[in-house]
Design goal:
Number of strands of chain A: 0
Mean pLDDT of chain A: 91
Low-confidence stretches of chain A: none
Main location (chain A): mitochondrion
Shape of chain B: globular
Order of helices and strands of chain B: HHHHHHHHHHHHHHHHHHHH
Membrane topology (chain A): Multi-pass membrane protein
Catalytic activity (chain A): a ubiquinone + NADH + 5 H(+)(in) = a ubiquinol + NAD(+) + 4 H(+)(out)
Low-confidence stretches of chain B: none
Strand content of chain B: under 5%
Structural class of chain B: mainly alpha
EC number (chain A): 7.1.1.2
Helix content of chain B: over 70%
Number of helices of chain B: 20
Structural class of chain A: mainly alpha
Number of strands of chain B: 0
Family (chain A): Belongs to the complex I subunit 2 family.
Oligomer: heterodimer
């Protein structure tokens, strides 16, 4: 893509999210979300592949629907309460509508159906932007409203963890697996939203770090299916040996840092006397762990002594900057002992 | 104490920076040094409290035998792995040794943890190196399935444990072992508290393993390479027993009624898995089921909650750790020569390898709990405390002892006595390394005959 156009689009994405961050008026928040959506659309269909164009259209339709629902809810709130401020939504109908609209925006179950197909149509870098940056603005809004309907958030959260687990079990396309992993992690974030919002932010940031490592590792291997990952041990042996740890961290195994958000969320849920829900959410993480384990089996833990029957990928010299990958991988693996410091930081 | 933990952590650095020709000798010497230093933990002060305390790690008579066993096992694992790793490229050898060392670090932190969540995190942390060892260095295709079973059985049991510990923490305020005995008991009759009791124990029962949830163990033990089998049998199963002993303190008085079905299940498992052993064709599978059988007895002894039960459980855990690891090493000597685990393919070995037959003999005798070995002491104490609880358990435990003796003898006679099969044309003579390995397993066991107070636990 023309570098000037790319610059404008990336700046516009940043602008949209920043507007939403800085807003206290619902119209401004909505405007930021719309700018964000519109800016990423050209990035998504830049390859003009039919699947990419289909993904772009699906994304546009769902995000537009969500934004329209958001606008409708904020206008309803303005009609009832007479003010447009984000934080003072005191009636349940607008709040619930806003929550559902934002759930559609980020892809929580049962409003998740667009996510796997959209991610499948994108290349890995744009998919990364979709999974990470695009979630920031809706979460900023979710963290600021006071959700009045406890069970709605818990149902959204639990359904997301279960759907994210079960949906990913039958996939061998990496981008769809990453989509379901995103749905599952978003479920965990929503579970604790009304009790301890800082933990939502912590889970979101940890998820960003872990997903970034995973997406970039897959991009370095230039592979989008599990089968093509199996030759990565010869191209990039160190990355191959680190990816199982990233995957197990995404699955939430101690002592990797992916355990930190799960542990703190379970602690908060048990303090709120929601122990059966906590157990169910924890066990649903095992479903996701199964397909993470399968990817790590294919990539690192098995190695064919002979050449596989797949087409061998070219081992081209790579000029990729792997410093961000190195940083995020280190954070993904080693951050658990810093848990007290991180909690303090987030509850300041 | 830190003088064991920090050298273990730096052993990782040594693994990656040693010159390749001296790698195995260096690591072996280093780990022997750490193991010798760890023997100082056995010199316990005469009281039953905690000693060598810092904020996060402490030892008491329950955990120090297990810690010494952990530290002792690392040089043995390194000796055992040397042969089958010799064909691998350099970096993979270093990676394997790093996995073994990191496993030891997590185990030291687990056994010396003072707070339950620390124990939990380290308990789970031991899963990852073991999983990698089993699935990456195992030899058959079934190892992937074995790794999956191993990981998911243990995690499905331990996630409810995490929630249960967090519930206890939110109601009592502290999960430190040091203050557990002074916290009020959880007396209530709610169904939810019974579920909480179950959640606390399930992880350890799966890890031990209890008979109904033991399916991961034969798969994992059989598919793992020798070091994986050794560490699984010797130490990782004992993590389950140790955790159970620690958590029993907070589970009173619910345990009086609720433990009944599990004691019976454990004893039934002793008989069932013993009977399965008599019908096995796979040598490692036989030893794995024998492990389930012994650990069933340990589980019953712990659930009884008497001093003799706990002492018997601890002694049996240590003795079984050494014995089972020795048996796996012996099975590995067979495997390295014939590349098969089928028993009948390597029979009558006393004719060919007579010195190895001595070790087979000693290990089989230890497995069937011959006096005066500590295996017998553990079993007798558990059987006595079970008899005290109820007379009828004697039927089950007596039958279990009989079946244990028969399959141990069966294993010995089938592998060592009788004519050699005609297809065994060329068998390497026993290496000195193998003799050293087995001597280092069985010598501590023989020395423990003289002073079992070292591993008696609290009730010295």
């Amino acid at each position: 893509m023309n570098p000037y156009i790319l610059t404008i689009l990336l700046f516009a994405m940043g602008l949209g999210t920043t507007i939403t961050f800085a807003s206290s008026h619902w119209l401004l928040a909505w405007m930021g979300l719309e700018i964000n959506t519109l800016a990423i659309l050209p990035l998504m269909c830049q390859s003009h592949h039919p699947r990419a164009v289909e993904a772009t259209i699906k994304y546009f339709l769902t995000q537009a629907t969500a934004a329209a629902m958001l606008l409708f809810a904020s206008i309803t709130n303005a009609w009832i309460t007479g003010q447009w401020n984000l934080e003072f939504m005191s009636y349940s109908l607008p709040t619930t509508l806003v929550t559902v609209a934002l759930a559609l925006k980020i892809g929580l179950a049962p409003l998740h159906a667009w996510m796997p197909e959209v991610l499948q149509g994108l290349d890995l870098t744009t998919g990364l932007i979709l999974s990470t940056w695009q979630k920031l603005a809706p979460f900023c809004l979710l963290l600021q409203i006071n959700p009045s309907n406890t069970s709605l958030l818990l149902i959204l959260g639990l359904a997301s963890t279960l759907v994210g687990g079960w949906g990913g079990l039958n996939q061998n396309q990496l981008r769809k697996i990453l989509a379901y992993s995103s749905i599952a992690h978003l479920g965990w974030m929503i579970l604790v939203l009304q009790f301890f919002p800082s933990l939502t932010l912590l889970t979101l940031l940890m998820y960003f770090v872990m997903t970034f490592s995973l997406f970039i590792s897959f991009k370095v291997n230039n592979s989008t299916t599990i089968n093509s990952l199996s030759m990565s041990w010869s191209k990039a042996p160190i990355i191959s040996s680190m990816v199982p740890f990233i995957l197990l961290s995404l699955g939430g195994l101690p002592p990797l840092s992916g355990f930190m958000p799960k542990w703190l969320i379970l602690q908060e849920l048990t303090k709120q006397s929601l122990a059966p829900l906590a157990t169910l959410a924890a066990l649903s993480a095992l479903l996701s762990l199964y397909f993470y384990l399968r990817i790590s089996y294919a990539m690192t833990l098995t190695m064919s002594p002979n050449i596989l029957l797949n087409a061998l990928p070219w081992r081209l010299p790579s000029n990729q900057h792997t410093l961000p990958l190195a940083i995020t991988t280190s954070l993904t693996i080693c951050l658990l002992p810093l848990t007290p410091a991180i909690i303090t930081l987030l509850t300041l | 104490m830190l003088k064991i933990l920090i050298p273990s952590m730096f052993m990782l650095l040594t693994t990656w920076t040693s010159p390749f020709k001296q790698l195995w000798s260096t690591i072996l010497m280093y780990s022997f040094l750490v193991a010798t230093l760890s023997l100082t933990w056995l010199a316990m002060p005469t009281d039953t409290g905690w000693f060598y305390i810092n904020n996060y790690m402490a030892y008491d008579p329950l955990s120090s035998p297990l810690l010494v066993l952990t530290c002792w096992l690392l040089p043995l694992m390194i000796i055992a792995s040397q042969n089958h790793l010799a064909v691998e490229p350099e970096n993979r050898q270093r990676t394997y040794i790093s996995l073994l060392i990191s496993l030891q670090i997590f185990l030291i932190l687990a056994f010396s943890a003072t707070e339950m969540i620390m124990f939990y995190v380290m308990f789970e942390a031991t899963l990852i190196p073991t999983l990698i060892i089993i699935t990456r260095w195992g030899n058959q295709m079934e190892r992937l399935n074995a790794g999956t079973y191993f990981l998911f059985y243990t995690l499905a049991g331990s996630l409810p444990l995490l929630v249960a510990l967090l519930i206890y923490h939110s109601s009592m305020g502290s999960l430190s072992y040091l203050s557990l005995t002074s916290l009020p008991l959880t007396c209530s009759n709610l169904y939810a508290d019974k579920l909480w009791w179950m959640a606390c124990l399930l992880a350890f029962l799966v890890k031990m393993p209890l008979y109904g949830v033991h399916l991961w163990l034969p798969k994992a033990h059989v598919e793992a390479p020798i070091a994986g089998s050794m560490v699984l049998a010797a130490v990782l199963l004992k993590l389950g027993g140790y955790g159970m002993m620690r958590i029993m303190i907070i589970l009173d008085p619910l345990t009086k009624e609720l433990s009944y079905p599990f004691i019976i299940l454990a004893l039934w498992g002793v008989i069932m898995t013993g009977s399965i052993c008599l019908r096995q064709t796979d040598l490692k599978s036989l030893i794995a089921y024998s492990s389930v059988s012994h650990m069933g007895l340990v589980a019953a002894g712990i659930l009884i909650q008497t001093p003799w039960g706990f002492t018997g459980a601890l002694i049996l855990m240590i003795a079984h750790g050494l014995t089972s690891s020795a048996l796996f090493c012996l099975a590995n000597t067979n495997y390295e020569r014939t590349h098969s685990r089928t028993i009948i393919l390597a029979r009558g070995l006393q004719m060919v390898l007579p010195l190895m037959a001595t070790w087979w003999f000693l290990a089989s005798l230890a497995n069937l709990a011959l006096p005066p070995l500590p295996n017998l002491m553990g079993e007798i104490m558990i059987i006595t405390s079970l008899f005290n609880w109820s007379f009828y358990t004697l039927i089950l435990t007596g039958l279990g002892t009989l079946i244990t003796a028969s399959y141990s003898l069966y294993m010995f006679l089938l592998t060592q006595r009788g004519p050699i099969p005609h297809h065994l044309i060329l068998l390497e003579p026993s290496h000195t390394r193998e003799h050293l390995l087995l001597a280092l397993h069985l010598l501590p066991l023989l020395l423990l005959i003289a002073k079992p107070e070292l591993v008696w636990g609290w009730t010295a």
